[in-house]
Structures are given as C-alpha cells and as structure tokens.
Amino acid sequence: MKSNHPKILSGKPAASGIGIGLAVILETGSKSVMPEKVGEKEIGDQIIKFEAARENVLKDYERIKTLPDNSDASDIIETQIQTLQDPEVESLILKKIKEERYTAEYAIFSVFNDYIQIMEATKVNWVNERVVDIVSVRDELIEATRERRKKLSVEKGEVVFAKEISPAVMVTLSHIGIAGIVIERGGLTSHVVILSQSLGIPCVINVHWDRYKLQNGTPVIIDGTTGQVLINPTWKQSQEYKKRKNDEELRYQKARKWTAEKSETSCGHPFSLKANVEFSEELANLKPNGAKGIGLLRTETILFETEDFNVDDQVAFYQNMLESTEDESVTIRLFDAGGDKVVDQSEPESNPFLGWRGIRMLLDKKILLRNQLEAIYRVSGMFKDRVKILIPMVSRVEEVIELKDHCSYVENLLEKKGVAYDKNIQLGVMVEVPSVALTLDVFARHVDFFSIGTNDLTQYTLAVDRGNEKISALFDSFHPSVWKLIKMTYDSASSHQLPVAVCGEMASYPEAAACLLGIGIDDLSMNAGSIPMVKAVLCQNTLGDMKELAKNVLSTNSISEIHEHLNSWRTP
Amino acid sequence: MVSAKVKVLNESGLHARPSSELVKTASRFKSEFFIKMYGYKVNGKSILGVMTLAAECGAEMELILDGPDEDMALKTLTELFENKFNTDE
Fold first, then answer.
1. Nearest-by-Cβ selection for A87 from B20, B43, B52
2. Residue A415 at interface with chain B, using a CB cutoff of 8 Å
3. Is the pTM of this model over 0.80?
C-alpha cells in the first residue's frame, strides 16, 4: 500500500464506537534474533531493557512456583529462577551489551546459546533433559525484552493494531487512553474484547491488517459498530466519521441521563442491571454507567496476574469489589480457568472447551478451591447478605453436591478459627451447558439461584467453538434453540421459586435485554459500558411490549425472523 | 583462600536438584566460589555453570573459596556433598 492511498478493510465489530487516530503497530515477537548492534548512546537503554525483562520473567516464575498442587514442577521452576539470577549469565550478557554493543535480545540469545551448546554436547542424560527448560528461560527473556518496547511505544489517542493482545498488555493499554484497537485474531468473548467493551474503547477483530504494509503513524478510522477500518481516510470520510462520532457521543450522553433514573419500565415494572467485572480498573466505570452491583465477577485474573492466590490476596481483591459497589450484591464466579484460559499448558487438550475447565478443574485442585472458598466466605462475613457464589461449567448435579462438601469444610474451618461468615451465603449454578437447562429440577434442590451464561450456552448448544474464526458466523446467541433453553430455564426455576439472572453478553443488546425481560428475567448483568443504552430502552418501553416481543421471538424457529423481530424493536 | 576436594556421592550425579541446592547454599555466603573439575573451572554460584559440569556419581572436584566467610562456606559446602545434598537417594 502506498503511504497515502485510502483503503477500507473490514472485520468483525467487537466493541462499539468510532476511533480516530494514528495507527501504532504492536509487534508480536518473531522468533528470529538478529545480531544487531546499537550506538554508544543506546547501550544504557539495552541494559535497562535486559534488567527489566529479567525482573518481569522472575516475577512470573515466582508466581508459578507458589501455585498449589505443583510440586512436580517446582524443582524445574526453582532451577529456572536460579538461571535468571545466575550471576555469571548476567555478567556475560552485560559484557556483550557494553563491550560489543549488541542489543539486549541478541546478548541474551548468544550467552544462553553458549551454555545450551555445552549442555547438549554432554553425554549425561539429566543435563540433556534440562536443555528444554533453559531454552524456555532464554525465549521468555527475549520475549519480555520485546514486550517492554511494545508497551512504551503506544501513546494516548493512537489506534493499536496487533495480532493478538494478552490480558496483561490490555490492562496497560487501557491506562494509556488509546482511541481504538484492531486485532487480527480473537473472538468476541476474548479478554481484549470484553475489556474494550467495558472501558468503551472501539474494537474491531478478525482484520487481516498485516497483509498490507501498514506504517506506524498512518491516519486511521475504526468503526467498532460496523467493523470497518479505514486506512488513510479521505477528507470527506474524515468529516463524515467525525460527525458520526459526535452524534454517537450525543446519543450516549442522552442515554447516560437514564442512569440516574429508577430502574423500571415505563409501566413501572422494576428490573436490575448489574455489571460484569474482571479487573479492578473497571470499578470506576460502574457508578457513572448506573450499574447496581456486580452480577458476574470473573476471578481468573487473580489466577493469572497476582503473585500467587493465597487467601489474603483474594480477600483484598474481593473486598475492593464490595467496597466499590455500595450496598449492592456481588456475585463471585469461582475460577473458570480452562477452555481458552489455560492454566497448565503442559498438557494441551485437543478439545479444551469440552475439557478440564471450571468446576471440573476445581474439584481436582482442592487446595485452590478451598482457598478461594475461604476467601469468599471471609469476605461474606464483612459484607452481610451481599456476596453470592456462582459455580462455572457445571454439567452434572454431583458436581454441585461435591462442591457443597467443600463449602461445609470451609465453614467448619472458619467456625474453629472464630472467623465470621454469612451463614446464608447464596450459591448458584451457571446455566451454560444444555444438560443443566434440560434437568434444572434436579439442580433446583441444591442451589439458591441460576445465572445463564449466554456465550457458553450458545457454544455448547450449537456445537460452535466460539474461538474458531472459520465458523464464527455460526456463533449466534439469538438462535431459536438458545432462546428456548433460556425460556425453559426461567420456567423451571420459577416453579421452584428460584431467581434466574442472565450474565452473558446477550443482555448488552438493548432489544435482547427487552426480550429477556419479556420472558420474565429481570436481573441482567453486562459490561458496564452497555448499561446506559440498555437502560434507556428498558425505561422507555412497557413490559407488555416486551412480552409481545418475547412471544414473537419464541414462536418462530427461523433465526432470520428472530433477527427481524429484534431489529424492528431497535429504537431509532 | 581455602579449598578442599570433594566427591559426588549422589547416585544420579550432581543432577538438577543437588545443583540447585549447591547454588542456593553457596549464594548465602559472601565469598567467591569456584569449582574445579578436570581442569575446567566454573563459578559455583552459577547454576548453568554447575550444570555444564555434568558431574556424575563418583566425580571428584575441588571447591575453592575466597572471601570473609570462606572457612564457614567451605565447611557447609563440603558437608552438603557428604550428605548427598539432603536428597532421599
């Protein structure tokens, strides 16, 4: 692409809004390391880069070391930590940078390779076996060196282009105040997308921007509502998008006015809109958007980003959430690791979404589970009647029964320690596997509430891997079968006087939220950024109209008709 | 500067765990620590250095210490070899 040639790429809209700014490309590491040298003045930078990378990787390993049930790996990790702290390795790398003026990347690469060669050449088995661990330390150090460069290069108001973005980098980016994100991969339910939605950063995914010679600093416009990405927009296009951006902001401001209003339909039927939260950074967005509590607190971040997950750290994390939500409730979902969020990459599964995740993993990792339960119970004692527990990936009732044994264990433990906890803490099951919706009666005897996770329910009902780009068009939460399962869940739970909530992204579409209200589900949780628009629509319509919509949606088996019903409902 | 000859008594040699134990223990002392084996000399506080020795059971090496706590360090490290690095085997 010539530098000034306008070009439109299209991808999948992931987080609404228009972003206008200059492109900045986040390089994700190619494995090749070139023997590049730097100028005299850059030597200091290279040293800082190396030391920072070493510090970061060290922190990661220290964290992994403290993972429970990990004693087999702890020897290897201990060796890797010692490798990072190896004084000889450090001084050789510094020498390569200082005396030979090599980049930090190459210095690391070449020093490690000398050792690796010697180790490979010995005829001693255990030495050969360790080579793989040393190679991984080398590569992680190099990767960390590059990541530092990435983070530093993004500035406020820029539009970030990347192949993919890790949750950790995403959190850093969100602090910078970027104008938008374009990624090549990713699904609608990836962390990048969820965080973009929550923080109001326009985002487009599945854009093959790398096929064009996009330069840093090229003017771009992204439309997170349609999925279009304009490179080098013409003057006319720029004017048009600036106007649309203004209009959108006005509309959002208008919707924002509803956030202070009572949560009820125009005919006076009350409803509750809560936020889905994963990061502490999101808490500041709750009140301005009118969120009443947290309907889904994702806790996997603690697993991936904190030093370890001891009880005290968790208590602090949950406490922060409860303190930031006034008197509202906070539903804490137990670690839902597995699936696309892998904890233990040493044993890759061929079908991770059908594999060892959620409650299945927790029941195998008892220390992890009991630590989390203990932390939640302790917080429940500090904030009476506000903490709820949600169990992810349940497919059979036995899992719930076994989990409750662990709850009793933790209750006894706290009794003995004399620590207060909420004796009526509410326990709920995620409805995301169809087997739960189909046999809800069996579960009803053991739990206090249900929460429907529409993303996974869609994935498991339609047998569509939500991360697979090739079939992403088949992933449609508005499929008639999904609506029927939602209706079944509501009817069955109601017959047992148990409440049902929806915490999937489906609730963030105003017309779908209206339809859910029409079915009878008036407890919805979504990314905070979507609440104003949803609330504006729900407040300005009657429950009668919403029931009519639900009736129409449930009475057809045609997915296109469902879309028509919902679209026609969309307020102009 | 003090030194002493030691022998690896662990059946599997100075493998990952003993190496790690050796480096960890040595790093607690201020003295410089070198290991000499077959005319090859490595920094004893460097895990990669120690591993590249690939010392097997029965291997003999010389521990050389130089610094303010050299006597204590030599005693502790020699004992570590004698106790098979506190491993079960």
1. B43
2. no
3. no
Q: Give the structural domain span for B8.
A: 2-86
Interface test with B, best of A58, A77, A79 (most B CBs within 10 A): A79
For residue A86, give the nearest of B17, B24, B46 by CB distance: B46
Structure confidence by residue, pLDDT tens digits, B50-60 = 999 999 899 99
Domains of chain A, earliest start first: 7-27+163-251 (3.50.30.10), 40-152 (1.10.274.10), 261-569 (3.20.20.60)
> The domain spanning residue B24 has which CATH number?
3.30.1340.10
* C-alpha span between A300 and A167 (Å, rounded): 11
Q: Which residues contact A21 (CB under 8 A, 6 or more apart)?
A: A157, A158, A159, A178, A179, A180, A219, A220
Strand pairing class (A219-223; A18-26): antiparallel
Which tens digit of pLDDT belongs to each residue from A384-399?
999 999 999 999 999 9
CA distance A342 to A133: 20
Tally of domains in chain B: 1
pLDDT digits (tens, 9 = 90+) for A410-431: 999 999 999 999 999 999 999 9
Q: Which pLDDT belongs to residue B30?
A: 93
pLDDT tens-place string over residues A484-517: 999 999 999 999 999 999 998 899 999 999 999 9
DSSP-derived pairing of the beta strands A330-333 and A228-231 = unpaired
Q: What are phi and psi of B53, to 5 degrees?
A: -65, -30
Kindly state the DSSP code that residue A116 receives in the 8-state scheme.
H
